Fold this protein.
Amino acid sequence: MPRRSETGPDDSGRACGGSLTWRELPAIPANASAWNDAIPVGEAWWRQIGLAGPIAGVHGDYLLVGGGANLPEPGRTTIAATSLGKVYWNELFVLDLTREVWLDTPLTMPAAVGYAATVSLPEGVLVIGGEGFADGPNGSKLAGVATFADVFLMRFDPARQEVAYEACPPLPAASSSGAAALLGRTVYYQTGKDFLALDVDNLAAGWQALPAWPGAPRDTAVAAAVGGKVLIATGRTQVDGVWRIHRDAFAFDPATGTWETLPDMPFPAMAGAGFGVGNRLVIVGGDKDVARWDLVTGFASRRAGLEAGTPEWEKLGAALQMIADHHVGFNTEILAYDIEDGAWSVIGRFPGPAPVTTQPVVWQGQLILPSGEVRPGVRSPKVWIGDVDVSG
């Protein structure tokens, strides 16, 4: 039976004005491309281990999930211990949401790409930027990972069970781990310090640069359209090898072309999934462990300045490995920002390991979280769907 979980009050017992009911859809099928002997695709026990940064969206009543990256070598879940490094895939899977069945037709994407931003449109799934390999699956230790400026639309034909790809205006510059939101028929995309807009009814005009928010550049932010505005929150910035984790938030008003600084979040939710639900921005998952990031970046910075193979270099490497191996999972609290009340609140908890680095998808008013990363180096093949009521 599918697992269900309903959450309401936060940890303090305070009523949250609504409920969130989650259940699992069928897990993503296993990758089938046996492109390297180090990946045990042909073994009977081989299963989907999950994808970080998957390409995900809905076209009609079909969920499209593909691309993404993982570490598929047996017994190795961190980049330091692998021979392939992080592997990027080009396979595409399609879930019939009405029947809750994955189609068995093998499909591929134009490139092995992950960490792109996606927006679901009536005419297909728009894929923006990302990183990976243009010529098919590969590992980061075998070749340099490319960052893409490409933008394309995925259209699924259920009668033929085929996917067509249509090139769209590229980004002004290559980018990965950006955030996108759809407001009306305009797609908004945030990357670094850039904020761009694409009118899907006037593609010939290309991407238009808009004023930047009054905050630091960032990646792995969340973005969503709420109440006629585009909200951007959290994320991270790397300066001189050190990460800064953000808990600020901003709202862009297309009518005036101006930004408003919102109250700070109670805690960061870096790489979480942001949904516009009624008059609220709802953020599921994310990483809020700033202390861990400070420890990791401090050790990594010290190690980078040492000669490889020295005792201190080895010691710091072992410490970083231990910190990663004993990570207990990302934030499970579900945050909401009410644009009318101007306040953040915790409206519940996710019922399982909360994924990060996946795309938020909405189908018939339900929230979908496909795959993603549940702790460093470890992905999940699970697909969650939530009936969310945050009224009141």
About this structure: The CA atoms of residues 133 and 311 lie 36 Å apart. Helices lie at 290-304, 311-325. The longest strand covers residues 19-25.
